[in-house]
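Ticket closed. Logging final result for Olfactory receptor.
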Amino acid sequence: MESQNSTVVTEFILLGLTQSQEIQLLVFILISVFYLIILPGNFFIILTIRSDPGLSAPLYFFLGNLAFLDASYSFIVAPRMLVDFLSEKKVISYRGCITQLFFLHLLGGGEGLLLVVMAFDRYIAICRPLHYSTLMSPKVCYVMVLALWLGGFVHSIIQVALILRLPFCGPNQLDNFFCDVPQVIKLACTDTFVVELLMVFNSGLMTLLCFLGLLASYTVILCRVSVSSSEGKNKAISTCTTHIIVIFLMFGPGIFIYTRPFRAFPADKVVSLFHTVIFPLLNPVIYTLRNQEVKASMKKLFNQHIH
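Final structure:
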């Protein structure tokens, strides 16, 4: 691999989700409606958690952070994709591509670590209840959130640093509707085998290990809950089941995209659409719909504003 970046490509042409005008129009309408309904819902979740003193437990603090991360994540890809649906030529500058890639992995990496933190929170609450208030104090929660942002930054900056060292001197057509590592690497004018391995290790292995670790954690928690006879048994099972659903939504597409050699598969774009636009907006909603306290608080806040 060359030590100097001899990039002459100044922009990339995005080939988009599909070449069919009819499908593009259908996806545009569906994503627009979905975006306009679900995104305000995410901000309402954040507002509810911030304004209700009864939702001060770490679980709700982390849920508010999840809603913020997911809303931010959806802003990276969806708005530009909607604009591109209406554009004849879908172009993104080299710097714009790198910026999009950076924030995509900053927020994606941060969210993956947040789900790990939320699993740790549930483990302490269920398996070590007497130590919960000490181990999950507000100070500790803030430190954890700071750490996951730092972890997301380190993960993302490694991705960007490896991409910036690659020379781009020829083809500039990205076979996707946004900039991501697998498609960008393919356009480099050099042998990218080592870089691909490093990318798979940084993104794919991290995603897979987090996923397996989270599944193992929730298996232990559910086993512990199932043999207990406490009043909150059903609530604990419901909360953990919700977390597991979100883990599959978050990590399933990530594993599909990043843990294999960078070869194109027909399903890649569809999986990417769900991974970057649909699932991030759905995650907090899934949590909320299965949490009676947050639902009751949202209804109360909504009624206050109506009356």
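The chain has ten helices and three strands. No further action required.
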